[in-house]
TrEMBL record, chains A, B:
<comment type="similarity">
    <text>Belongs to the RuvC family.</text>
</comment>
<keyword id="KW-0479">Metal-binding</keyword>
<dbReference type="InterPro" id="IPR036397">
    <property type="entry name" value="RNaseH_sf"/>
</dbReference>
<dbReference type="GO" id="GO:0006281">
    <property type="term" value="P:DNA repair"/>
</dbReference>
<comment type="subunit">
    <text>Homodimer which binds Holliday junction (HJ) DNA. The HJ becomes 2-fold symmetrical on binding to RuvC with unstacked arms; it has a different conformation from HJ DNA in complex with RuvA. In the full resolvosome a probable DNA-RuvA(4)-RuvB(12)-RuvC(2) complex forms which resolves the HJ.</text>
</comment>
<dbReference type="GO" id="GO:0006310">
    <property type="term" value="P:DNA recombination"/>
</dbReference>
<dbReference type="GO" id="GO:0008821">
    <property type="term" value="F:crossover junction DNA endonuclease activity"/>
</dbReference>
<feature type="binding site">
    <location>
        <position position="141"/>
    </location>
    <ligand>
        <name>Mg(2+) 1</name>
    </ligand>
</feature>
<protein>
    <recommendedName>
        <fullName>Crossover junction endodeoxyribonuclease RuvC</fullName>
        <ecNumber>3.1.21.10</ecNumber>
    </recommendedName>
</protein>
<feature type="binding site">
    <location>
        <position position="68"/>
    </location>
    <ligand>
        <name>Mg(2+) 2</name>
    </ligand>
</feature>
<comment type="function">
    <text>The RuvA-RuvB-RuvC complex processes Holliday junction (HJ) DNA during genetic recombination and DNA repair. Endonuclease that resolves HJ intermediates. Cleaves cruciform DNA by making single-stranded nicks across the HJ at symmetrical positions within the homologous arms, yielding a 5'-phosphate and a 3'-hydroxyl group; requires a central core of homology in the junction. The consensus cleavage sequence is 5'-(A/T)TT(C/G)-3'. Cleavage occurs on the 3'-side of the TT dinucleotide at the point of strand exchange.</text>
</comment>
<dbReference type="InterPro" id="IPR020563">
    <property type="entry name" value="X-over_junc_endoDNase_Mg_BS"/>
</dbReference>
<dbReference type="Pfam" id="PF02075">
    <property type="entry name" value="RuvC"/>
</dbReference>
<dbReference type="GO" id="GO:0048476">
    <property type="term" value="C:Holliday junction resolvase complex"/>
</dbReference>
<keyword id="KW-0234">DNA repair</keyword>
<feature type="active site">
    <location>
        <position position="68"/>
    </location>
</feature>
<keyword id="KW-0540">Nuclease</keyword>
Amino acid sequence: MRVLGVDPGLTRCGVGVVEGTAGRPLRMLGVGVVRTPAEADTAERLVLVERGIEEWLDEHRPEYVAVERVFSQHNVRTVMGTAQASAVAMLCAARRGLPVALHTPSEVKAAVTGSGRADKAQVGSMVTRLLRLDAPPKPADAADALALAICHIWRAPATGRLQQAVAAHRRTTAPVRLPKGTR
Amino acid sequence: MRVLGVDPGLTRCGVGVVEGTAGRPLRMLGVGVVRTPAEADTAERLVLVERGIEEWLDEHRPEYVAVERVFSQHNVRTVMGTAQASAVAMLCAARRGLPVALHTPSEVKAAVTGSGRADKAQVGSMVTRLLRLDAPPKPADAADALALAICHIWRAPATGRLQQAVAAHRRTTAPVRLPKGTR
């Protein structure tokens, strides 16, 4: 499967495309950052984020988009920009009919490093090893986007089995709501 | 001037179009609510919000879009949906080159009722009088969207003078940043 990971942000929106399946070596197809100028209006910045994400979708044609789930316990100003940029990323994907998965930062860290409390350097270092890169991708937002894509590929079999179980359950009983973040 | 007011939300996104100029009677051109199903994925809901806003922009061709400025001191879950829906509204407007203005809830209440602490009923009642409606628009999100549009029309002359002053100042001195929400 080919996955676009998006680490959302208004100033720097990390994007990374990884191809592979769980249990086999992964391949990085691209990594980068969509930037918007801090002095621009929020509305203009959202248009630039949309344009950037669209270019990545056009160029790499991913089958899935994995976006970091935003929490609001962080800095108030930052979290609003992050929520708004993540909305644009989700919108771009869903408008094309691509499945969107949300993964929390600790899910991503745990998937990639084995610990939900790993720091940026550990995530960057594991992403570098897993994708056989020469050096950790910079800035950290780019490495985080790749980690999101890797997390999605590795979690997909479990999510797939869950969806099958829910679908089977649905055929015999009343409707069941999937947990958030699974599709 | 013709203004589309947007009271952003994922479950109910209030929309209202008002035409007029400060100091003269106002005219309501349309009011409604863009709804999305709570059981749908956030990404799908954002696509529905986009589609709804686009329809309102197509039908009423406003010259300005006024969106409620979202703060995050409210309920964590609610505020994320509100921030995401507001991002979609801002994106739709800016993509068309329409100026987007953000007004805080207290600015809107103060503009329409004279008090920044007015309750929903007072806002609905003043919107009804100002637009010479038979009854307050329902739900409250629809009335709030009209109040946003009215607030924008009434604040526009002051904002325009401010922008002229800043532009004049810029011609003679170093760059000045406009306060947030003015354009």
